[in-house]
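Priority: medium. Attachment 1 of 2:
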């Protein structure tokens, strides 16, 4: 939530949130920091429905904010608001989180995209989670949208990723040989008082503890709906491709977490610039080239899923550059972080019907 006069984050007005929950119910929720609103679609049958639902929700929230004299911005971080100036949302859940993590929780003023893809078989979810880890940095590199933090150009394309590393149980997940091994890990954490349930595991991709889904959490929240839909379509396609391999008693090679993390930090630092590591060939490859290889890997299933058009938006991201690159270009042109926020708002509202 943005104050259009100062371009700072601003706590939402209670009447606005009450109206939003009346209209949207569980599709709109509060977050740890009071100026932040989380919206979530219902279950979508395909990517076309996902686009409709995300556009509808964004339109609703923008309208709610405008009626209260506020605006909405979608980016991985706010370019200059300091977390210490932002109130924490009251509530037992958030009180516990702040009690446990203290300044680490209070400073976690970041904004991400979560994509759930249904995988109904318990064993398949564990197997697919192990395989999909390799592709997380590739997809993350397309989403980077947080170059600024506390008024500074960080030099990173996703500083959000660096902030979130302070939390426990984050980053690239381990690989588990079976559902039993995975469940033993969860049970050990619960038995030893580390977590109350598996929702306190904040990996870049995780098996959701309550829904039969793999939840992808690695990406910065993009500015445009088109970007969000592209990323969601890729996550769906990769999941489906790995499921088809699993269903045919095949699989994707399991790479060490430590090696995949090498690619993640490169993606966070450089976005689409520089290179990632082709872990199979053990060579550096331009990031865009590895992403094109990923598109070739899923090409057969995107046609089956009806998401070829949405996935092909990757080439538009290559052309227009990532959100981080575009934010940096505005700052280079204007020298003004409020102007960057103004640009974020404009991009957030791109092609959104405003009543």
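Attachment 2 of 2:
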């Amino acid at each position: 939530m943005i104050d259009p006069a100062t371009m700072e984050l601003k706590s939402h007005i209670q009447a606005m949130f009450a109206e939003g929950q009346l209209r949207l119910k569980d599709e709109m929720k509060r977050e740890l920091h009071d100026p932040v609103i989380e919206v979530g679609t219902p279950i979508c049958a395909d990517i076309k429905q996902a686009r409709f639902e995300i556009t509808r929700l964004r339109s609703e929230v923008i309208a709610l904010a405008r009626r209260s004299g506020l605006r909405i911005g979608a980016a991985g971080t706010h370019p200059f608001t300091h977390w210490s100036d932002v109130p924490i949302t009251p509530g037992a859940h958030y009180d516990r989180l702040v009690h446990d993590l203290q300044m680490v929780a209070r400073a976690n003023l970041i904004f991400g995209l979560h994509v759930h893809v249904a995988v109904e078989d318990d064993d398949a979810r564990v197997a697919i989670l192990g395989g999909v880890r390799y592709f997380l940095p590739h997809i993350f590199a397309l989403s980077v949208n947080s170059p600024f933090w506390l008024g500074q150009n960080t030099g990173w394309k996703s500083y959000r990723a660096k902030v979130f590393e302070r939390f426990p149980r984050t980053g690239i997940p381990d690989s588990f040989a079976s559902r039993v091994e995975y469940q033993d890990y969860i049970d050990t954490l619960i038995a030893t008082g580390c977590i109350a349930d598996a929702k306190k595991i904040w990996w870049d991709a995780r098996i959701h503890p309550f829904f039969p889904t793999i939840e992808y959490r690695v990406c910065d929240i993009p500015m445009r709906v088109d970007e969000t839909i592209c990323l969601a379509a890729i996550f769906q396609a990769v999941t489906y491709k790995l499921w088809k391999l699993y269903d045919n008693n095949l699989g994707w090679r399991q790479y060490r977490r430590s090696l995949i993390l090498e690619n993640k930090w490169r993606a966070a630092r450089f976005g689409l610039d520089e290179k990632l590591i082709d872990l199979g060939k053990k060579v550096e490859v331009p990031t865009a080239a590895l992403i094109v290889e990923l598109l070739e890997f899923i090409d057969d299933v995107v046609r089956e899923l009806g998401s070829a058009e949405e996935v092909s938006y990757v080439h538009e991201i290559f052309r227009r550059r990532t959100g981080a690159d575009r934010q940096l270009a505005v700052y280079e042109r204007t020298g003004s972080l409020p102007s960057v926020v103004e640009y974020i708002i404009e991009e957030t509202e791109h092609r959104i019907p405003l009543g």
